[in-house]
Amino acid sequence: MGKLIVTPYEGGVLSALHDGGRVRLLDWNEPGESVRCGNIYRAKVVSVSRNIQAAFADLGGVNGYLPLADGETVKPGDELTLQVEKEARGTKLAVLTRKLSLPGRYLVLLPEGRGVHYSHKLGTEDIPEAVKEVLAPYTAGCGFILRTNAVGAQPEEIESEAERLKNLADSLVIRADHSPAPALVFRGDEPYLTLLRDLRKGEAEEIVTDDPDFFREIGEWLAAHQPEDAGKLRLYDDPQLPLQALYALPAALEKALQKKVWLKSGGYLVIEPTEAMTVIDVNTGKNEGHKDFEETVFQTNLEAAEEIAVQLRLRNLCGIIVVDFINMKDEAHREALLARLAAAVAADPVHTAVEGMTKLGLVEMTRQKKSLPLEEKIPSIS
User: Fold this and answer.
1) Does one domain contain both 134 and 179?
2) Within the chain, which residues score under 70 in pLDDT?
3) 47: domain CATH number?
4) Domain of residue 291, residue span
5) Which of 186, 206, 239 is the last residue of a domain?
6) Of 131, 159, 186, at which residue does a domain stop?
């Protein structure tokens, strides 16, 4: 049974998804104000660079970067309503967008959009006509994206969320119109609440925290946004065995920051994040169990594919990912490996694509980038 754990840790908040006897997801965030993905600002343009087709906008003591579409006219002093699309990373500013979006559990509302659209993993046949019908009255002035969690949701659940998001969008328009720039118009949920919202339905059968303040906040959020999950929340209180020790979270965090990841077979991965991409190398290591070396390599690669899917989500590795699997001569083995990798990453709530294998045998992947990777969030304890 999967458990979402939320606990104070090293001056911040540590969230972990524990399932199948291991930690499969980790996130750590500092408390307090920050320019987070999803925040919406009434921002003031401070400069425009036509050479790179971008504007720089003041969000309130912090600048962000706004890519400009061809023909888009923006000048210093303009006041714009902008949303953080990607968080700041290293020397790079937060990336901003004028195309606002308000995510819920089942839907994403697009204030400037029209009609009903579908996430990458959904087709029109996955959603009953009754769900589409309840959305129709709300699409006159906005658009919606149906998320993967919408599969199996009741029409009344979809309608309730559509109404809540539409009311929120209307209130934000009023707030933005009456806020002198720079000003924060909308602050997204705390990261651990966003994590709870974005989990696949049924993935966390229990929500556990050992902090009364988190217990209260999560309870209030569930009552307002996911009342069907309110009964899953539990306050852990055992002074003899702290929650972090019960699930070995410090050890899991330490392992998630190491470059080498051992496989059960004796093979291992070496994970090397760089500024441009993440490179993952697969090695046979101690795995010499088969007399047939080609079969040994194939089985090691299959195991590595499953573990890579876990590590991408665990460490929040995003952008371009290149995997150097152990070379295989058999074309059928190569095709089976790509199929196994694609199936393994399909369960990731963050859109992840296996682009294919190059002539040199390197597998190229992409994973949607929003928030920072785990190792960049916790430099003080890594």
Assistant:
1) yes
2) 1, 32-33, 123-124, 286-291, 379-382
3) 2.40.50.140
4) 259-377
5) 186
6) 186
C-alpha dihedral sign at 183, 185, 187, 188: negative
Residue 167 lies inside a defined structural domain of this protein: yes
pTM: 0.85
Q: What is the pLDDT of residue 68?
A: 92
Query: How far is Cα 100 from Cα 109, in angstroms, rounded to an integer?
Result: 9
Side chain identity, residue 223: A
Q: What's the distance, CA 10 to chain centroid?
A: 22
